[in-house]
From TrEMBL:
It comes from marine metagenome. This is Uncharacterized protein.
Length: 211
């Protein structure tokens, strides 16, 4: 059962990657500095590596809670400056950030799976029930009704908005397994995480452990 659950988890991530659903939302976000100053920014990256930008400049929240412009990248983490977003001048007008390029990125992270490839033919050929957990955060409440996920995961002939014949989770694995793997997702109610979104992020040194 433990190995079966592991297979389900791997397959779910692969399917979402194929739909390009791992990319950060393109919708602008509102940020608030500790003194109440507000500015608009964007999420960048995907589920493996994420960062934020304001007007094209990469930004990071420092230890005191201030959003500051990033000076560069140290491996998987952006390096904070002392210049505060929305308060100090932007880098192209700020002598303290002279020649700072836009769109600085931390190094990419990769998922390495050295486990054996499961042989589906030697397992069951009936329906596999796949649990799907929906988690939101105190600072990022969910926006999608459960019916949306029911269609994405289980609806035969599902088409993602703006595409044709993209197929559902079930369609995808039924096709590539030549009918030998028939998943049906059991979708749980939304669960609120006890901590804010960034508590679990890679930018938090203990983020992965918290998950």
């Amino acid at each position: 059962m433990k190995n079966t659950n592991r297979i389900f988890l791997i397959l779910t991530f692969l399917y979402l990657y194929c739909l390009r659903a791992d990319l950060a939302s393109p919708a602008p976000m509102n940020f608030i500095q500790p003194d109440g100053t507000k500015f608009t920014g964007l999420n960048r990256g995907n589920h493996l590596q994420g960062w934020r930008e304001a007007n094209g400049w990469s930004i990071i929240q420092n230890e005191d809670g201030w959003w500051v412009y990033a000076l560069g990248a140290d491996s998987h983490t952006l390096i904070p400056s002392t210049q505060k977003v929305g308060i100090d001048l932007e880098p192209d007008q700020n002598p303290a950030l002279n020649n700072l390029p836009r769109h600085l990125k931390p190094e990419l992270r990769f998922l390495l799976d050295e486990g054996p490839v499961p042989d589906i033919r030697n397992t069951r050929t009936d329906t596999f029930f796949v649990p799907l957990l929906l988690v939101d955060f105190p600072d990022y409440a969910y926006e999608y009704p459960m019916d949306t996920f029911e269609d994405i995961m289980n609806l035969a002939g599902y088409a993602y908005p703006g595409t044709e014949n993209s197929g559902s989770f079930r369609d995808f694995y039924q096709e590539i397994s030549y009918g030998e793997f028939l998943p049906h997702s059991i979708i749980a109610e939304w669960v609120r995480a006890p901590n804010p979104h960034d508590y679990y992020a890679y930018s938090n040194p203990d983020g992965y452990a918290h998950v």
